[in-house]
Amino acid sequence: MNNVNTKPKPKDYSGYGGEVVRWADKNLEYPDCSCGCIWYDRVDNNYGYCRNPRSERFDLLTFEHQSGFFCFKESNTQ
After folding, report:
1. In terms of DSSP bridges, do strands 40-42 and 61-63 run parallel, antiparallel, or are they unpaired?
2. First to last CA, the chain
3. Cα–Cα distance between 15 and 67 in angstroms, integer?
4. How far apart are CA 28 and CA 45, in angstroms?
5. How far is CA 70 from CA 4, 12, 37, 44, 60, in A?
6. CA distance linking residue 33 with residue 52, whole number of Å
7. Which of 28, 31, 49, 58 meets the CB 3.0–4.6 Å disulfide criterion with 72?
8. Bridge partner list, 63
9. How far apart are CA 57 and CA 73, in angstroms?
C-alpha cells in the first residue's frame, strides 16, 4: 500500500494532520494503533481499519501511528 492517503481527523496526532500534539503532556500516555489496540484491523504492515464504533476513525483506513489517544483499547492477547 504505497503512497496511501488517509483522511485526517481532528483527534489524530498532529504529525498526521490532526490536532493532538503527541507527548505534549509528559504525564499522559499517547498510544497508537500499533500498540495492540483491539479495534485495529490490520491490512498490511502499516495500515488497517479502525473498528471502534465510537471513534471518528471508524471504518476508515488508518496509518498505524496516526491515531489512538481518544480511542485506543489495549488487547489482552499480546
Report:
1. unpaired
2. 25
3. 10
4. 27
5. 23, 9, 12, 23, 15
6. 11
7. 31
8. 47
9. 14
